[in-house]
Amino acid sequence: MSDTETAGQARWDAVDDYFTGLLSPEDDALAAALADAGAAGLPPINVAPNQGKLLQLLAQTQGARRILEIGTLAGYSTIWLARALPADGRLITLEYEPRHAEVARANLARAGLDGVTEIRVGAAAASLKALAQEGQEPFDLVFIDADKPNNPVYLDWALKMTGPGSLIVGDNVVRHGAVADADSTDPSVVGTRALIELLAENPRLSATALQTVGSKGYDGFALARVMS
User: Fold this and answer.
1) Pairing with 42, which of 36, 70, 97, 191 sits 20 to 30 Å away (CA)?
2) Could you count the other beta carbons within 10 Å of the beta carbon of residue 156?
3) Per-residue b/e over 97-117, b at no fewer than 16 CB within 10 Å?
4) What pairing do the DSSP bridges indicate for beta strands 66-70 and 117-121?
5) pLDDT tens string 95-140
6) How many angstroms separate the CA atoms of 41 and 10, rounded?
7) Model confidence pTM above 0.70
8) What's the half-sphere exposure (Cβ side, CA atoms, 13 Å) at 14?
């Protein structure tokens, strides 16, 4: 990283710290979730606190009663989202790695959210198929934050399990700017570009994407409202 890039990251970190300290401070459950994730050797790829608060506000604005999360990791974003649910709400989160799911279960229980959340372990595509076969009620919000090459698959299932007015949010769609490279062979970039193109092409969706900078570097979100 160049001196200019290092200085830029330091500025982004300082701004995130300022915003987070005032607007989205972590409580003991959130701080412990990150500490346990680090102790278990999980990768530090969770959303930042201010991004978690954004997800919570989106879910509250939606009036979401049912939330689907694709990619649990240690349950940090799960906590933010689940706290937006009403008393009769439900969040189902999908995690491929059993070890990650074990850490997430403990984190959700400590946060007092084990009664409104459910972690399903296994390949997300298989879990999504099983959910659809169960005849689950439509989800009000879907957060896609798993392996990026399968983004198109996850969007397809999300559309099958949502209805008019539902919100679909995709994380990490900028890839440090690589998403603009049409010649990239990086599977994560290819999968992300496919996601964005599907959002643009699908007549059922009204979508946009935003670039972000902060403690997590240079990245962004895609947001799509299901219109029909």
Assistant:
1) 191
2) 14
3) eeebbebbbbbbebbebeebb
4) unpaired
5) 999 999 999 999 999 999 999 999 999 999 999 999 999 999 999 9
6) 25
7) yes
8) 6
For the chain, which domains are there? 3-226 (3.40.50.150)
Rg of the chain in Å (alpha carbons): 17
User: Residues 167-184: pLDDT tens digits?
Assistant: 999 999 999 999 999 999
CA distance 138 to 18: 37
